[in-house]
Amino acid sequence: MTKQRLKLGDLLVKEGLITKEQLVKALDEQKKQKDSRIGEVFVYLGMVSEHDLVATLGKQLAIPYVTSGVGLLRPAIDQGLEKLIPKDFAIKNILLPLSKNLNSLTCAIYDPMDLVLIDNLRKMTGCEINPVIATKTDILKAIEEFYGKVNLLKEAVKESYGKTEEETEEAAGELAEDELSLDTLIAKAEEAPVVKLVDLVIRQAIDERASDIHIEPYKDRISLRYRIDGMLYDIPPPAKHLHLPIISRIKILAKMDIAEKRLPQDGAFMVRSEKRTIDLRVSTIPTVYGEKVVIRLLDRSQLPLELSQLGFEAKQLEYFRKAIISPYGMVFLTGPTGSGKTTTLYAALNEINNPHKNIVTVEDPVEYRLEGINQVQVKSEIGLTFATALRSFLRQDPDIMMVGEVRDLETAQICIRSALTGHLVMSTLHTNDAPSAITRLIDIGIEPYLLMPSLLLIVAQRLVRKLCPECKEAYEPDKEKLGKIKLNVDLIYKAKGCEKCNQIGYRGRVAVYEVMLNTEEITRLALEGAQSSKLKEAMRQSGMDTLWESGLKKVEKGITSLEEVMAIIAEG
Q: Could you tell me if 468 and 505 are in contact, meaning their C-beta atoms sit under 8 angstroms apart?
């Protein structure tokens, strides 16, 4: 045993993590601390971090080292691993089952040299053990994450099954019938276990800051996923036969037709959680295995209504603020769905809102209610479209108009005409960058000589995940891997993972902006019919950053990682 410990110490010296003098000091300290491992002594004395120690031990033993930061400490949720290895045993021995493949069980183990433990695991599970090594901290946090969620949902699902297996099978058989009566559906959906299960799913989504809940039926299972900071994560799902009562319960809450399963439907309801009011927008679509439901969660208290908090660079914020206080003209926000355009518009309206201004909006849907602003919901089924609402707005003596989206030529023409006749108009488009918005509007039929005089500014944006400030790690990027990417700092940050960020390494999102002012040069090029590439070149020559350049600035400031920017924003 002593020989093994000396080998670890020598390896740490060889790796340059400790000095020979520190090794001697640690061995002396170990003699004072009975039953202490040399590695634990190194960490106790602050000579090496737990991360460096375990990484070195993994190298010594030729065992893969995994961390929570890269998502490898996330056990498979559909293999019954919590039954294979109980939580108490996992905590006592600091190990976590990760996945089972045929007769091989992969486990993260803090001490893979404990041969007695490996043998006990083999006998307990009936599997050959494939060990990987991880830190004690990471394993213990992952155990709480995994077994906590499993037990919570398992308990709710168990209650919704009924008192006996026979009752469960009978209920499942009844609910599988296509010709179920409306009364039966309502009765099943209002049963306490189903109510509790739906409540749990929604509450957990709120606690984990999810923006969407996806409940999807497949042939022999249900999939439950949360979208957190733009990424979808699997959550332990309820049993397949509970699909219909769950969907029915959600439909009842959202005041939808629970008897209609063949057509898509939309609905909404509100919940209160810790003095917060959260709007839930429900959408269902029929799939081959039943209805899929997506619930969008809109937490009013989490809406950042300060422009300075959104992610604008200082110069960009100056340009944007100057545009939105103009007495007339057009301001366009552009980007894909879910890029935060509406939030930016709400923050702009919040900043310029005052009793001396008449502000009207037309939206589809109205996502958040803003005090002191007249908001109109589009209802195309009765003829209330963006265009008809805009025409009515002009008779309402408006100062500022916000249009949720320019979808057609008629809406675009009214927006331009309103901007030319003394109104400030703000709206959104779906284009990849700011210069493309000009060419898109011209392509749908707007004459350049009308568009350019009315246009003040175009903003393109994306959302990138913010690195968790508690655990982000600094490193020096490999210059060869960077290639043409130019950074103005030597050290940047990457994701690691900790309890604060739920072991993901990221927490929250921030917007990356491309702000293009309508300069004389850009107007001249647009009137000449220039392509968006020429417009972008003129924008850059005027000193305005592209989306990519703005993203790199956030990498340099340690706000996000280079990997995240590369995944979300096209280089250029």
A: yes
Q: Which tokens belong to 437? A: 């918005």
Is 199 in a helix, a strand, or coil? helix
CA nearest neighbour of 430 among 422, 442, 441: 441
pLDDT tens track for 172-223: 444 444 333 445 545 555 556 777 788 888 888 887 888 999 999 998 889 9
Tell which residue, 290, 286, 284, has the closest CA to residue 217: 290
Q: Is the dihedral of CA 486, 489, 491, 494 positive or negative?
A: negative
**What is the C-alpha separation between 375 and 104, in angstroms, rounded?**
59
Q: Judge whether 159 and 196 are in contact, CB under 8 Å.
A: yes
pTM above 0.70, yes or no: no
Residue 282 has φ and ψ, to the nearest 5°, of: -110, 135
Residue 401's nearest CA partner among 362, 372, 368 is 362
Nearest to 501 by CA among 260, 118, 233, 111: 233
- Convert 5-25 into a string of H (helix), E (strand) and C (coil): HHHHHHHHHHCCCCCHHHHHH
Q: What are phi and psi of 534, to 5 degrees?
A: -70, -40
**Pairwise CA distance, residues 436 & 526, whole Å:** 11
Rounded-to-integer distance, Cα 419 and Cα 443, Å: 19
Reduced to 3 states, what is the DSSP secondary structure of residue 49? coil
pLDDT on residue 538: 93
CA-nearest of 371, 378, 326, 330 to 353 is: 371
Q: Where are the alpha helices (DSSP H) in 242-304?
A: 243-253
3-state secondary structure of 202: helix
Q: Are 100 and 79 within 8 A, CB to CB?
A: yes
Spell 164-200 as b/e; 16+ CB within 10 A means b: eeeebeebbeebeeeebeeeebeebbebebbbebbeb
Q: Give the closest residue to 246 by CA, choosing from 290, 280, 303.
A: 290
- Picking from 359, 363, 366, 367, the residue whose alpha carbon sits closest to that of residue 386 is 363
Partner residues linked to 226 by β-bridges: 213, 233
